[in-house]
Amino acid sequence: MRFFSQMMREKYKETSKKSIAIYLILRVLVILSAVIQLFLGNWQNVALSIFALILFTLPTLISERFDIAIPSLLETSIYLFIYASAILGEINNFYAKISFWDTILHTFNGFICAGIGFSLINIFNQNREKSVHLPLCAALFAFCFSMTVGVLWEFFEFSADSLFGTDMQKDRIVTSVSTVKLNPQNENVPIKIENIEGTEIYSRDGTVTSIDGGYLDIGLIDTIKDLFFNFVGAVIFSIFGLLYTKNHNKYRLADRFTIKKK
User: Fold this and answer.
1) Is the pTM here over 0.85, yes or no?
2) Do 101 and 70 touch, CB atoms closer than 8 A?
């Protein structure tokens, strides 16, 4: 079974030119960002810009290494996601300036990764004499693949925060907490503290840091929110892909996201 049909060569050529143009523009913008951060002396952002440039090379490396043709629309989506996440989100602080920026990116990531999961099944079928005729299993694989990528990304964010002192898992102020840690009898019964108006953090050197408005949650809520919206994106594409396999001619857009053998 082939999940996605072959596109016309002319359409691929046209889209490929657009993809190359977008790739070059984004690459120049990332290099400019690295130069600006270099002059500002922000070495962390310089390293992040270089990391983004390395990520830009992955689609080409994967295409050549595994002898597959990545569609221009999918490739362009990957470039835009890397730029929006690393450069706009982290370096230009869009995560703080635009409250829903992180939500959009994680939903989009879940959607795209589910599409890649479907594409892997497509490549698997193209290399077998007998194809796998299980659309539901393909949808479940795409969903699980997307969620796995989302979890690995959260591992990366946690590692970066722990090792390099970044704040990729964004903290936020909460006004209530429920924990067994404060139970005076050490019982497994949570103690609830509500209507928190402020907290103070005492450092060993005598420094006191005041937090107005509540208690500082150190990334837990952000991580769960990210995984939830990754879940939403994965579910949307998995349902779309399931419908596509059963109604091939009605969903032509999926052809634009399909990884095919060269």
Assistant:
1) no
2) no
